[in-house]
Amino acid sequence: MLELWVIFIFLLVFSSQVQVSNSQNLTCNSNDLKALESFLVGLDSGTFYDWGSSNSTSTNSNCCYWLGITCNSSASFGFLIDAIDSGRVVKLDLSRKRLTCKLNETNFTGLDQLRTLNLSNNFLRGSLPPSLFQMLNLQVIGLSKNDFSGSIPMSINLPFLEIFDISDNSFERSVLVGSCINSTRIRIIDFSLNYFYGRIPSGFGNSNSLEHLRLGPNFPPETYRRIFS
Which of 30, 28, 50 is nearest to 40 (CA)? Predict the structure, then answer.
């Protein structure tokens, strides 16, 4: 019996060492790499130099090693089809990088395992692409302190979303109930410091996990200019 336990512990330790070794040598999934390269190309020129390129060393050309990128082993998601255990991007954190650009539909296409998106404290502008709100695995959206505008799409399919922070931007129109639809795990919603207006929709009350709801101050643009000009 003792010998069986020794063998079991040996196999457990060996398995964990193999997993650690694999996680340290992940190769960026090709779809994730294309999506990140598309995002990089879309940035205004001269605003970001911290990611590698195909002409750089092998480490710099592997997006799992890039600044602000976190990868998990594809095997951890049950993807065992590929002979090589590629790394899937689960976190994109480029806050405070002075990024300037407009986001478009292709920026995040392919990042289907992304859990955390943090682009706060930059100079990003324009409306948010509808595809962002169809990324089924997203848990955190942090887009605060940019210059985004327009409205939030009515069609939102983010079943695992927990944190939704778009504060301190230039979003307009009424506060939409869509931010809670199909997001039963949401804990924090921050829509403050925008141009939202209207009544608080009753749909917010359907979010049983909601802990913090921040909606103020918000004013229509003309009211904001009249008060603060």
Answer: 50
Using the predicted structure, report yes or no on whether residue 16 has a pLDDT greater than 70: no
Return the amino acid letter for 120: S
Residue identified by tokens 């931007």 is 169
Helices then strands, each counted (H, E), the chain = 3, 12
Alpha-carbon distance 64 to 56, whole Å? Answer: 14
Residue 179 to residue 163: CA distance in whole angstroms: 11
Residues 6+ apart with CB under 8 A from 36: 51, 63, 66, 69, 89, 92, 111
Q: What is the DSSP letter of 206?
A: G
Q: What does the buried/exposed string (b/e) look like for 167-192 if buried means 16 or more CB atoms within 10 Å of the residue's CB? A: bbbebeeebbbbbbbebeebebbbbb
- Residue from 198, 201, 200 nearest 223 by CA: 198
**3-state SS assignment for residue 137:** coil
User: For residue 30, what is the enclosing H or E element?
Assistant: helix 30-42
End-to-end CA distance of the chain: 80
Is the pTM here over 0.85, yes or no? no
As given in the structure block, the two tokens for residue 164 are 């939704």
Spatial strand order of the sheet with 125-126 comes to 125-126, 147-150, 170-174, 195-197
Residue type present at position 57: T
What residues are paired with 140 via a beta bridge?
116, 163
Residue-wise pLDDT for 125-147, tens only, equals 999 999 999 999 999 999 999 99
The pLDDT assigned to 14 comes to 40
